[in-house]
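If you are new to this repository, start here. Below is one unmodified record pulled from the training split, so you can see the exact layout before writing a loader.
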Amino acid sequence: MNLGPINLEPNRKADKQLRDSVHKLRAELTEHNYRYYLLDSPSITDAEYDQKLRELEQLEKKLGEPIPDDSPTQTVGAPASHVFESREHLTPLLSLANAFSDEEVRDFDRRLQELSDGRKINYIVEPKIDGLAVNLRYENGKLTVAATRGDGKTGEDVTDNIRTISDIPWRLEGVGVPQLLEVRGEVFMSKASFESLNSGQKLAGEKLFANPRNAAAGSLRQLDAKVTAKRKLNFFAYGAGTGSEYLADSQSSLLRKLDSFGFAVQKFDQFSDVDSLLEDYQVWQDRRASLSYEIDGLVYKVDAFDLQQDIGAVSRSPRWAIAHKFPAEEAVTRVEKVLWQVGRTGVVTPVAEMKPVKVGGVIVSRATLHNIQELHRKDVREGDEVVIRRAGDVIPEVVRVISVEGVRAPVVIAPQACPVCGSHIEQSEGEVAIRCSGGLSCPAQLKERLKHFVSRGAMDIEGMGNRLIDMLVDEPEVSPLKLKSVADIYSINFDAFVGREGFAEKKIENLKQAVETSKQQPLPKFLFALGIRHVGAVTAISLSEVFSSMDAIMDADMESLQSVDDVGPEVAASVRSFFEEAHNRDVLNKLKIVGVWPKPIETTEIPYDHPLTGKVVVLTGTLLQIKRSDAQSMLRKLGAKPTGSVSKNTDLVVAGENAGSKLSKAESLGIQVVDEAQLMAWLFGS
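And here is the target side for that same chain:
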């Protein structure tokens, strides 16, 4: 039966689309290789690259055409740049195939079992360093050439820079050093060195490195070896090329031999079954965040060299090894909104609300921007495409902006009022952090404020511990036990505790009594309980002694506050800001209404004719006959104003033994100076 001509056009069209997709993906990955290996400035994350490479492998297989040698699926790294002299490796450096799931590791093991002809397979497991692969050539035990991986056959000569790394010996010592030996390993930068380097870059106004791997690569490829030396790079040896046949018969024995030659070698594990490999993977994943350097997975290798040789390799990877990658710690997503979050101590920080994305094995939709300075330095705005990073249990953070579309959103500016309670935002001079000033009423800070307020050194409400505070703050809104500020402690309906588990009649009665007793706390304890920033127990005592009453402290101006010993501009500003905030005044007024207000400190009558009355006095040096704090207290009772610094307003300086710069300044200003004996005569009338 004649069905007529067959229409092949749909198939041709599908093949063309598939071929176009393959060509496009090859070009894209070649560009990414260039940016990663030569520019040290990747534009996508490692996980995205791995995903695209795997997609290309599948498309090439589906296309069914011969794969060119220069396809990214067939090549290793990127061609050497023209900046450094090229060096050919005596034995090529292959790349590892990747596994991203337990099932892919089991498939790897099944393939090896089939290829091993029934021979037992012992595996060695090594952490996969996230660094830069290099090949070190030793001739008669002396380091002669060091080159980067390059395209696997030819790399860049970085010998001078390699010699600055203390983990790499210039000359090999020990038994059995071959005449010619290639040692393979990874150059990396520790987390601490990376943070230090970026801090320096930031201070110098220079571009920050995206991660330790890029920092290591950029540092190793410096034209000036002195710059590399300052970057504090490290090295782990993991293999050998030419000459390895004279050293060992297995990977594990090779690592021990390299260790004996003076190389730094990582800890490794050995197993004979795939289940143990997967269990070890979980152990290392849990351990990952605590390491001083970055790893991004584990490498499983057949241990015996003769079995490795029989199993062989494909174009770019050995069949006898695979890298089991950890879940990606970096991902790309889009910022939808920048929010402001108030921490338990009142610090207000910017947070990026993003399109949800999986990173580090977890779906995340928010990432920290740390502070206003970091927000502006990274120039993150709503609508930007960004790289986010999550390491272990660390809160995800925005690393950098990688692309923007169209007209960008306006620069994000810091809020003027607390986003939670509406109190004004403050920032101390010289500090990066911005803070909510509504300490006594801000819900975000409430639990920490309450815990401090009831503590032993403050209002000392026995029985009201952290667990009870948590319970009272988390009560439903309609509950008679719900706490919304420290003042609510004194309005608790204790009868509502009756019948609750853990609240016997005696306990409830003790709580009632402790709350009632706390109303009688003296001024210094009450002042300390308020949790004013920079006002600790000692400063609270000093303020109380000078001003004698809560009302006087609340109304004191900056100059008056700074007349108190050890109260400088920063502490004075913190006190003023606290009492100027309307929300704090409202809570203080509620405390006053319910009878929680300290009695003024009774002061002795100041002798109007005492020579120190009204004088601004500075004590400096060591006093032998009286404690400094006791002397300051007695001076205040005499109407004097002891301060901690010498200025043109100072009337008198008392110089004890070993008086220093304050004495010198007093003498230069012509201020009266007396010794401790004169001070004692004034204080005790002798």
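Two things worth knowing about this chain: The longest helix spans residues 9-38. The chain has five domains: 9-63, 86-325, 330-403, 455-603, 616-684.
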